[in-house]
Predict the structure.
Amino acid sequence: MFRAFAVASVLLLSACVTAPRLYPTERLNTLTRDCGFALGTIYQEEEEPKLLFLVAPEAPPTNLACVQRFANKRNLHVAHIAAVIETN
């Protein structure tokens, strides 16, 4: 009886979890434009589909909030890269 309950619980919980999704480049480019960033500053990688990378030093807070709203609605996490150090 307990085993059947445990199996049913696991199945119910797993039905609530959605698999991470990679968004098409066109959709990310639209988000980039809508939030006021330069093309190519927002992207995803196949290895970490739950992360939305944003490479934007000195980004205005309103622009960051725009990306964060998109991410929150889709259960994504924003990885904001605020500084890039070049070495020779």
